[in-house]
Amino acid sequence: MRNAKTASAPDGWFNRPVWIAFVLITDLYVNPDTGIPNSSPGGSNLAVDNIHIYNDVLSGISDNTKNMLNTLVYPNPAFEKATILIPTQLGGMVEIFVTDIVGRMVYSVSINATENQTRLNFETNNWGAGIYMVKTTYRDTTGINKLVVR
Question: What is the domain range of residue 73?
Answer without folding.
Answer: 65-149
